[in-house]
Amino acid sequence: MTIAAYNDETVRHVGNSPIPCHTRLGKILKAFRQGLTDGQREENALKRVLVFAAHPDDDIFGCGGSLAKHVKQENQVSACYMTSGDAGSLDCRKKELARIREDEARKAAQVIGFQELTFLRNPDGYLKHDEENLKKLVELIRKKRPNIVYVHAESDAHQDHRVTFHLANEAIGRASGPLFRESKEKPWNTDTVLAYEVWTPLSDFNYTEDVSEFIKEKVASLRKHESQVKIARYDEAAEGLARYRGVMTGKGQYCEVFKIVKASIAF
Fold it and tell me: With a cut of 50, which residues of the chain have pLDDT below it?
């Protein structure tokens, strides 16, 4: 593992109604995982995935199985945490808890096989939709050049989760335009944006991913967040929710569901 830091910390790990699969978005995601874009084989068939999460563990809870599937298909997966979850316990000082939770995020990422983690270290519970955060996200999107972005659902009951959605959604739009000279990177248009469920189950999802093959990795990764699992069995909740989604959608034994925010590739 190598670490590069500027103002925020970037940690690099080197290693490893539903829509059916034959529909447009299913084809898009299948193409990404196969490294194909409408018959083109670019960049050695590797595609880039970026997930935004308000807190360490949100990403694994909401879409850990899908991310593990991306990794298996040799897609490059990175995560950006808006806060370090320093409000996630009454038994630990904020600074120490942030350190613990960042370390847990690194261990969880190694289970799935993330390429890179970025910690923006906003205060947990007080995340703001402001200029500073927008600039950081625009810069990150242009730098990472993701084909797919996963982000919290707009309907989530947790305030930090909703703010993360709005920040990421606006940053994706800004990153694609010809403006914002303060960014050193070139404009980048993200093809697909999927919103995942955490605090509040989605009632209007329109894409389902079968993650049966990856449920053990998802749960094992979530259990690396020991400071949180000892407070509440989020690992069991995530596994149970995936099983429920599998049964109710009929798309697999364990599934993750998403709301499509953007799907722009035409076939």
Answer: 1-22, 35-41, 43-44, 266-267
Q: Residue 197: give the domain boundaries.
A: 2-263
Global pTM value: 0.85
pLDDT (tens digit, 9 = 90+) per residue, 110-149? 999 999 999 999 999 999 999 999 999 999 999 999 999 9
Q: Which two tokens stand for residue 244?
A: 């429920």
How many Å from the N-terminal Cα to the C-terminal Cα in the chain?
39
Tokens of 240: 């149970």
The encoded tokens of residue 198 equal 């955490």
In the 3-class helix/strand/coil scheme, how is the chain assigned residue by residue? CEEEECCCEEEECCCCCCCCCCCHHHHHHHHHHHCCECCECCHHHCCEEEEEECCCCHHHHHHHHHHHHHHHCCCEEEEEEEECCCCCCCCCCHHHHHHHHHHHHHHHHHHHCCCEEEEEEECCCCCCCCHHHHHHHHHHHHHHCCCEEEEECCCCCCHHHHHHHHHHHHHHHHHHCCCCCCCCCCCCCCCEEEEECCCCCCCCCCEEEECHHHHHHHHHHHCCCHHHHCCCCHHHHHHHHHHHHHHHHCCCCCEEEEEEEEECCCC
Our count of domains for the chain comes to 1
Q: CATH no. for residue 30?
A: 3.40.50.10320
Q: How many CB atoms lie within 10 A of CB 72?
A: 15
C-alpha to C-alpha distance for 186 and 189, rounded to whole angstroms: 10
